[in-house]
Amino acid sequence: MTERIKVVGAGLAGCEAAYQLAKRGVPVDLVEMRPKKSTPAHKTGKFAELVCSNSLKSEDVNTAQGQLKREMRRLDSLILRAADYARVPAGSALAVDRDLFSDYVERTLRSYKNIAFIEEEADRIEPFTIVATGPLTGEAMCEAIKEKTNGEFLNFFDAVAPIVEADSVDYDLAFFAGRYGKGGEDYLNCPMDKEQYYSFVRELVSAERVLLHDFEKRDVFNACMPVEVMADRGEDALRFGPLRPVGLIDPRTDRRPYAVVQLRKENVEGTMYNLVGFQTNLKFGEQKRVFSMIPALHDAEFVRYGVMHRNTFIDAPKVLGEGFSLQSDPTVFIAGQLSGVEGYVESAASGLLAGINAYRRLRGLPVFDPPATTMLGGLVKYVRTENKDFQPMHAGYPLTPELSEKIRDKQRRKQAYSERAERDFAPFAEEYEKQ
Ligand SMILES: Cc1cc2nc3c(=O)[nH]c(=O)nc-3n(C[C@H](O)[C@H](O)[C@H](O)COP(=O)(O)OP(=O)(O)OC[C@H]3O[C@@H](n4cnc5c(N)ncnc54)[C@H](O)[C@@H]3O)c2cc1C
What we know:
435 residues; alpha/beta; FAD/NAD(P)-binding domain; Elongation Factor Tu (Ef-tu), domain 3; 6-stranded antiparallel β-sheet; 5-stranded parallel β-sheet; 13 helices; 33% helix; 15% strand; binds flavin-adenine dinucleotide
C-alpha cells in the first residue's frame, strides 16, 4: 500500500488538504504549476491565491457561513488560521490582506518536512491522489478527470470585480460608514443622486462586453452575476441589489442617497479598494469609462479590471462517493470548486474533508462524515444528492434538513439552525478526535 498522497493544486482546497495530511504525518507530494504556468485568473505564483474578492464572507455564527467557519476552526483549518492572521477590518465579514494570507499558508506548508513541493503541470491521475485543480482546470487535467468520471463534467461562466487605488478616490464625494451603523468605517460609500444613477445604468447596459455572444448563450451563475447583466434586468435592479442605499446616511446631506456603490478595503494598508458586487464582463476601456461615472471614482486608477472566467466542475452527485472520493476509484479524491462546492471557504472545506478522508482511507479508518444538520455535513449531502441541474453551491442552511419547529423570524430561524448545527457538530468532532 502506498504511504504517500499526491495533492494536485496548491489553491484553497489543495493547501488545506495537504496541511491536514502533513500534520497527521502522511508524506505528501504537493504539485502546483504556477508560477511556471498560470490560469486566466491567477496573478501570482503564491499558494492559496484569492483570485477575486478578498472577503471570506460572514463570521457571524448565526449565519451558515459563520457556522461553517466555526466547524472548520474546530478541525484546525489552515485556511482559516491564515485568514485570522491576515484579517483586515470589514464589519462582520472575514476579509483579508491577500498577500499576507497566501504567505502564511505557504510558510506553514513549507515548514513541514514531509511535504515535497513539485512545480509542474500534472496531466494524469494516479491512485492516492487528491485533485484540487480548481474552476480553471486546464485541458489536459480535464481529460484525465473525464476518463475517471465517464465524462460527467459541467462548465459555466462567472465574473469578477475591479479594484481601484485608494488614493485615486475623491473623498469629498464619498463617506465611510457601515450599513445601519455596523462595522464603523469599514466601507467607503460612493453616493449617487437620481440623475447620476440612471445615466450610469444607461451607459452600463450599453457598454461593450467581452465574449458577448458566447456569454449570453450560457447560464450566468446568480451568486456572482456581472453587474451589467443585473442592470439588464431593469433600471432599478442595481438600486435594490449591490447599489442599495438602505441603512446608509450621507453625512454631507443627512439623507439617504438614491444609490450607493460600496468600496471595501483590499489590503491591510488600505491602499486599494474593491467595488463590492461589481463582477463584470465589460471590456477594460469600457470599465474605466463607465465606472468613472460613479462621482467619487471620476479619477479612479484601476489596479485590476474585472474579468470573466470559466468555471469547471464535475457532476458530483453522479461521480462522488464517500468523503469526496470517486466512486470509480475510492483512492482518488476531488476537492475544491471542481467538486461542486462554490466559494473560497467552501472550497477549503472540501479540501479539509478530502485530506482527512484520504488519511483515513490510508489507515483503514471509517470515513469522516459530519451529521447532515451541520454545515460541513450539508455541503457533503449536497454534492452527493441526485440533481439533474447540478450547480456548485455556497454554504447555506437550505442544504441542511428543515428545523422541526417553524420559526417565522428570519434572524431567529438562522440562529436556531446554527445552534442545532453546533449542538450536533461538537460531540461528533469530539468523538472523532479520539480515533
Ligand atoms: C475568477 C474567479 C473569481 C472568483 N471569485 C470568488 C470570490 O470572489 N469569492 C469566492 O468565495 N469565490 C470565488 N471564486 C470561486 C472559488 O471560490 C475560487 O475559485 C477558489 O479559489 C477555488 O478554490 P480551489 O482550491 O478549488 O481552486 P484554486 O484556488 O483555483 O486552486 C487550484 C490550483 O491548482 C493549480 N493547478 C490547476 N491545474 C493544475 C495542474 N494541472 N497541475 C498543477 N497545478 C494545477 C492552479 O494553479 C491553482 O493554484 C472565483 C473563481 C474564479 C475562477
